[in-house]
């Protein structure tokens, strides 16, 4: 009888119920909400499902992120900036840069959307963060998870890397919720109905030369961006050169999805109650949201200026796609435009600023690294 009692007692003491705090319960509820948004509402499930499941696991079994735990080793690949670079290669292999090449003015819209990053940087300084932490937090405004992880790792901000990554990926997933109200607030119905001229055809030679030229120019000016820009452009060169179909398929499918699983679950597993439910994390999440909103607004406002300058040839809605969330932000531009006029097709026009935003956010990250003397 004593043996049975001892066995039951030992089993009970090893269960998660004995160590789970109220904070863990809160985070488990948050994880379930994220799973609901991903599965039932379709909010970027490729990102939210692994992130929220990692969140669920770590708040039930914290040792999964301790040294020797499975997700600890996944997370090391984040800290070493390996997974963010591989994500960029996959994005490059999946993305058509043609709209950006056909309409170089899109670079201005991508640049304008980076305004939110600098707003958040000074906001973070005002909130008491040091300059490196402020720079790491501010990149959330680009809605670019891989770049946020990359910069936080390079600047040695591993203690806040988890909240930064979760905030960045959460806002990427919630682009369809956050952006439309801002876009509608800053534009008139007449502006949203503007139909843009069809983009010019882009030759194969242009598409091949573009990633090579961008890699050379950007890496010469900011060598610290080479891991991100280089991998982005390498993936795109795979896509456009036409002689490495197997590499294109691997980079854009199998490898990309493997990396998303590793990165998503490890990022989600940084959200233990102890690490996430504190004032610092709340500040990071708030600053990230402010940065993202300001970036969206800046892109739309510059779109309005360009609309006036071109006498109504540019729909301001495409300016919101200047954030780095590819291709979600471009889809939102299309969706908001189509709500006003179902015959209005803005997707390909919005892809130009969207791709420019990816490049722009990586350049801003490289600029921060150069300022702080990181090589």
Task: Please provide a written account of the structure.
- By secondary structure, this protein is mainly alpha-helical.
- It has helices at residues 2-14, 22-39, 45-60, 70-79, 82-94, 98-102, 106-112, 115-126, 131-138, 145-154, 161-173, 175-186, 189-192, 204-221, 226-241, 245-268, 273-276, 279-309, 328-340, 347-371.
- The model has no long low-confidence stretch (mean pLDDT 90).
Topology summary:
Layout: H1 2-14, H2 22-39, H3 45-60, H4 70-79, H5 82-94, H6 98-102, H7 106-112, H8 115-126, H9 131-138, H10 145-154, H11 161-173, H12 175-186, H13 189-192, H14 204-221, H15 226-241, H16 245-268, H17 273-276, H18 279-309, H19 328-340, H20 347-371
Helix pairs in contact: 2-3, 3-11, 3-16, 4-16, 5-10, 5-15, 5-16, 7-18, 7-20, 8-9, 8-18, 9-10, 10-11, 10-20, 11-18, 12-18, 12-19, 14-15, 15-16, 19-20
């Amino acid at each position: 009888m004593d043996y049975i009692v001892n066995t039951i007692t030992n089993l009970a003491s090893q269960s998660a119920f004995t160590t789970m705090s109220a904070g863990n319960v809160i985070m488990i509820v948050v994880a379930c909400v994220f799973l609901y948004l991903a599965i039932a509402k379709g909010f970027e499930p490729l990102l939210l499902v692994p992130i929220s499941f990692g969140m669920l696991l770590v708040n039930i079994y914290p040792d999964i992120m301790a040294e020797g735990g499975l997700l600890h080793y996944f997370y090391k690949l984040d800290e070493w900036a390996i997974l963010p670079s591989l994500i960029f290669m996959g994005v490059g292999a999946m993305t058509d840069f043609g709209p950006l090449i056909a309409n170089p003015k899109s670079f201005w819209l991508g640049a304008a959307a980076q305004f939110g990053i600098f707003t958040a940087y000074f906001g973070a300084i005002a909130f008491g963060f040091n300059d490196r932490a402020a720079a790491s937090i501010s990149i959330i405004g680009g809605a670019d998870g891989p770049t946020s992880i990359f910069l936080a790792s390079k600047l040695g901000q591993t203690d806040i890397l988890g909240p930064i990554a979760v905030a960045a990926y959460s806002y990427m997933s919630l682009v369809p919720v956050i952006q439309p109200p801002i876009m509608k607030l800053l534009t008139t119905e007449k502006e949203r109905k503007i139909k843009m001229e069809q983009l010019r055809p882009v030759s194969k030679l242009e598409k091949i030369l573009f990633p090579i030229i961008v890699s050379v120019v950007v890496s010469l000016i900011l060598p610290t961006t080479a891991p991100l820009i280089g991998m982005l452009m390498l993936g795109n060169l795979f896509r456009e050169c036409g002689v490495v179909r197997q590499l294109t398929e691997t980079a854009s499918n199998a490898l990309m999805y493997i990396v998303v699983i590793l990165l998503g679950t490890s990022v989600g597993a940084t959200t233990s109650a102890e690490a996430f439910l504190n004032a610092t994390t709340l500040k990071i999440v708030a600053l990230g949201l402010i940065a993202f909103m300001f970036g969206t607004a800046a892109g739309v406002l510059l779109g309005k200026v360009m609309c006036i300058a071109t006498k109504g040839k540019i729909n301001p809605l495409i300016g919101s796609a200047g954030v780095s969330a590819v291709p979600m932000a471009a889809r939102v531009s299309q969706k908001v435009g189509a709500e006003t006029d179902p015959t209005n097709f803005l997707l390909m026009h919005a892809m130009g600023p969207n791709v420019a935003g990816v490049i722009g956010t990586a350049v801003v990250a490289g600029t921060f690294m150069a300022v702080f003397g990181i090589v």
